[in-house]
Specification:
- The structure is a single chain.
- The protein is of the alpha+beta class.
- It has a single domain, classed as Macrophage Migration Inhibitory Factor.
- The chain is 32% helix and 31% strand.
- The chain is built from 1 helix and 4 strands, in the order E-H-E-E-E.
- A two-stranded parallel sheet has the order 1-2.
- The chain is elongated.
Length: 59
């Protein structure tokens, strides 16, 4: 059972999340032989003020 935790800055639309879930699950099915319905994906949308690169906050 693949588990993917995607963290990103900002918000995605429902349509964008749907496409991402489709692409990730299709890739795991094609490359690793894992059935789509066995793949779990969690999308964490992080506010800019809660994300830093090195010692600099992004937002």
């Amino acid at each position: 059972m693949p588990y993917i935790n995607l963290k990103l800055v900002g918000k995605l639309s429902r349509d964008q999340k749907t496409v991402i879930a489709k692409e990730f699950s299709e890739t795991l099915e094609r490359v690793a032989g894992k059935p789509k319905n066995a793949t779990y994906l969690v999308i964490d949308e992080v506010a800019r003020e809660n994300w830093a690169q090195g010692d600099k906050l992004i937002g």
